[in-house]
Write a structure and sequence with these properties.
It is built from 15 helices and nine strands. The radius of gyration is 33 Å and the shape is elongated. By secondary structure, the chain is of the alpha+beta class. It has three domains: 56 residues, 2-Layer Sandwich (GCC-box Binding Domain); 86 residues, Orthogonal Bundle (DNA polymerase, domain 1), CATH 1.10.150; 185 residues, hpI Integrase, Chain A. A four-stranded antiparallel sheet has the order 1-2-3-4, covered by helices on one side. Belongs to the 'phage' integrase family. Keywords: DNA recombination, DNA-binding. This is Tyrosine-type recombinase/integrase.
């Protein structure tokens, strides 16, 4: 075997003939590092052509190191779906904890449905025009809330990709694209409508409606309450107070079942005192529908031991709200009722936030509605001026 020939000096770079008869080209790049051509060449002419192309790229400031070129090819081959999966695995809340199961479920739902058109697209290939057209098509379906949620997730994923230098610019530039105004407002029941609902619903769920309406508990908070969370105080044999310790909430995740965790926010951990006029119903419920152990669920499912599926509860909720003439009303409207009635007693905004477990004043304000007491309140203002 003959020895390799000496390197041949060129005006740029150098060449040498290998024992195999092929030619190897090398050069020193703008980074000061000597680089080899990615492959060898059959002829010296081909090797020199490669060196000329490198020299031209350097002159045009378009040269990239081989490592950067490899990274660019990897980025170009990275699909939106692949990066989104990586992104999900690195998400944590403000306390450094993994995302809640419900949040993760919602993100995966959005990725699988409204964001599906981007799934197999290269992450770096999606354009602003493409995003704008996609959003317009979703809005045309009338699903404005879902569109805003999906766009918000898309924007967050691309913001991370930009921060990690996987793309040079984000295609998500629609101002206000992640917010929406549906025009639909949750109207709480009137006192009379609530009375009809309480009278119409099966006795097993009467206390659940009252706890939601007068205590302001979320469905998941109420259905995770246990006997140990109900604190009854008596004086001389008479019940003087009933308070509920809200420390947990339950959600149902498709394919995973019920998951118990903390309430929606840190502010959700609270003690809620109930008004005296619901004492009798709550005590009757404890006696007739709740197990005797501290861990017994206050509002269990039909078997008396498992959590109450919301779909099971709605079989009784729908007829009751229909009897009240409020077929439009979700169960969550009872929480709006609680916020409005508590504020009407003179409670401050901070008081209402503490009772309902809100972490922001904006959220608390959404749960306060006009009560129809304008004349009464104006009359009070007049009396105060007269005094």
């Amino acid at each position: 075997m003959s020895a390799p020939k000496r390197k041949r000096r060129e005006t740029f770079g150098s060449l040498r003939k290998l024992p195999s008869g092929r030619y190897q080209a090398t050069y020193v790049g703008p980074d000061g590092v000597r680089h080899n051509a990615p492959s060898t060449f059959t002829t010296m002419t081909d090797a020199r052509a490669f060196l000329r192309s490198v020299q031209d790229r350097i002159a045009l400031s378009t040269w990239q190191s081989p490592a950067d070129e490899t990274a660019a090819r990897q980025r170009d081959g990275l699909t939106f779906a692949a990066y989104a999966e990586t992104w999900l695995g690195t998400r944590f809340n403000s306390k450094g904890e993994p995302l809640r199961a419900t949040t993760m479920q919602e993100y995966r739902r959005l990725l699988a449905a409204p964001l599906a058109p981007f799934a197999q697209r290269p992450l770096s290939a999606v354009t602003r025009a493409e995003v704008e057209a996609w959003r317009a098509s979703l809005l045309a379906t009338g699903r404005r809330t879902q569109t805003a949620s999906a766009y918000g997730l898309l924007k967050s994923i691309y913001a991370s990709a930009l921060e990690n230098e996987l793309i040079t610019a984000t295609p998500c530039t629609i101002k206000g694209g992640a917010t929406t105004v549906t025009g639909r407002k949750v109207a709480p029941p009137t006192d009379d409508e609530l009375d009809v609902i309480v009278a119409s619903i099966t006795p097993r769920f009467r206390a659940l409606v009252l706890v939601a309406a007068w205590g302001g508990l979320r469905y998941g908070e109420a259905t995770e309450l246990r006997r140990k969370d109900v604190h009854v105080k008596r004086r001389a044999g008479e019940v003087v107070s009933i308070a509920l310790s809200v420390e947990r909430a339950v959600v149902h995740i498709t394919g995973q079942g019920f998951k118990v965790g903390p309430p929606k926010s840190d502010s959700g951990v609270r003690v809620v005192e109930l008004p005296s006029f619901v004492f009798a119903d709550v005590l009757a419920h404890l006696e007739e529908h709740t197990g005797r152990f501290g861990e017994s669920l206050l509002f269990p499912g039909a078997d008396g031991a498992s959590h109450l599926m919301q779909s099971s509860f709605t079989r009784y909720w729908y007829p009751a709200r229909k009897a009240a003439g409020r077929e439009d009303m979700p169960f969550h409207a009872l929480r709006h009722f609680a916020g409005t009635r508590y504020a009407a007693t003179g409670a401050t905004l901070r008081d209402t936030m503490a009772r309902l477990g809100h972490s922001s004043t904006g959220a608390a304000m959404r749960y306060q509605h006009e009560t129809g007491r304008s004349s009464e309140l104006v009359a009070k203002m007049v009396r105060r001026v007269a005094d």
